[in-house]
């Protein structure tokens, strides 16, 4: 039976840049998308945090979105990353955004302002009303400085039919368990941490939006699909095999590690936009060694 949309393995897609003038390398992006789509993933996340969308111009973001939609060609659903800390500006942007070929919205909690839980409730109500596609909330307090509590998450899940899930990257397993215990039917709980995907799925989560799957789409998909089927023994074997790499790619932040790993695999040129910088030589060597060990 076909899984509900945004169940399974989603890939937080990186953006390859060219060495000359740091422009988007659409040739490398196309090759990466083809590898990912044909490796058994369930959906792609376009223009999320891992894509470095924050350092792209509006025209670049539009071009990348259009290119991803065209290249995927409907083979898997696409979730579009679009959030902000100015609710009115965000809802205006949603009204101007082309959602052709887009199946869902991933919207991060407002950052920097540090709203309280009532403010977060009001923000996501506005986003849910403005979005023409289903909304998945994104809780990542390590980046935003604010945590979307289990109570607020559950209240929004119950109140807003257009909010269909949450990408949980708080690292707080007590909070994750509380959401899973009380969520309404059909509300997706998606891991936002590669290394916590297996334990979260053992508790009942619906999958992952994965950084690691840029480099290991087949293996991440297999692990997640084993877990969805209740085959935790085989899922755990894959989890343990990938765990050293899953941890190491975040040693110096994201997408610093995954881009270094993809360069080691020959998939992209390792270019990031300031204020992000390339991985240190020490981390690059560590990732290359771990990747060789994993493949062999």
Task: Characterize the structure shown.
There is one protein chain. By secondary structure, this protein is an alpha/beta fold. The protein has a single domain, classed as TIM Barrel, CATH 3.20.20.70. The chain is built from 12 helices and 8 strands. It has helices at 26-37, 58-72, 87-96, 117-130, 141-144, 150-159, 173-182, 197-202, 217-228, 232-248, 256-264, 281-295; strands at residues 8-12, 43-46, 78-81, 104-108, 135-139, 163-168, 188-191, 207-210. An 8-stranded parallel β-barrel has the order 1-2-3-4-5-6-7-8, surrounded by 5 helices. Helix 3 (87-96) packs parallel to helix 4, helix 4 (117-130) packs parallel to helix 6 and helix 9 (217-228) runs antiparallel to helix 10 (232-248). 44% of the residues are buried. The model has no long low-confidence stretch (mean pLDDT 96).
CATH superfamily: Aldolase class I
CATH top level? Alpha Beta
Number of domains: 1
Overall mean pLDDT stands at 96
Name the quaternary structure.
single chain
The H-and-E topology, N to C, reads as EHEHEHEHEHHEHEHEHHHH
**Taking Cα atoms only, what radius of gyration do you get, to the nearest Å?**
18 Å
Unreliably modeled segments = none
Concise structural overview:
The protein has 296 residues and is an alpha/beta fold. Helix content is 45%, strand content 12%. It is built from twelve helices and eight strands.
Q: Which terms would index this structure?
A:
296 residues; alpha/beta; TIM Barrel; eight-stranded parallel β-barrel; 12 helices; 8 strands; 45% helix; 12% strand
């Amino acid at each position: 039976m076909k899984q509900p949309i945004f169940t399974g393995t989603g890939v937080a897609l990186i953006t390859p840049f060219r060495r000359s003038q740091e422009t988007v390398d659409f040739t490398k992006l196309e090759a990466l998308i083809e590898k990912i789509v044909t490796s058994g993933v369930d959906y792609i996340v376009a223009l999320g945090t891992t894509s470095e969308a924050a350092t792209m111009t509006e025209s670049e973001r539009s071009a990348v979105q259009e290119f991803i939609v065209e290249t995927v060609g409907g083979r898997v659903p696409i979730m579009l990353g679009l959030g902000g800390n100015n609710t009115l500006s965000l809802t205006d942007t949603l009204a101007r955004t082309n959602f052709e070929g887009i199946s869902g919205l991933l919207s991060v909690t407002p950052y920097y302002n540090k709203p309280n839980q009532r403010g977060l409730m009001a923000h996501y109500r506005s986003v849910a009303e403005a979005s023409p596609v289903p909304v998945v909330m994104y809780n990542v307090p390590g980046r935003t400085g604010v945590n979307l509590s289990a109570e607020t998450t559950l209240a929004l899940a119950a109140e807003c039919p257009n909010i269909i899930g949450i990408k949980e990257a708080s690292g707080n397993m007590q909070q994750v368990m509380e959401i899973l215990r009380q969520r309404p039917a059909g509300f997706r709980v998606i891991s936002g941490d590669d290394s916590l995907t297996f334990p979260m799925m053992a508790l009942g989560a619906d999958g992952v939006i994965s950084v690691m799957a840029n480099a290991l789409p087949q293996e991440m998909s297999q692990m997640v699909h084993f877990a969805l089927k209740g085959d935790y023994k085989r899922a755990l074997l894959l989890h343990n095999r990938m765990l050293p790499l899953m941890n190491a790619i975040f040693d110096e932040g994201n997408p610093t590690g995954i881009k270094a790993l993809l360069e080691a695999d020959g998939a992209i040129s390792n270019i990031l936009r300031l204020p992000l910088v390339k991985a240190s030589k020490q981390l690059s060597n560590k990732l290359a060694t771990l990747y060789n060990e994993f493949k062999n």
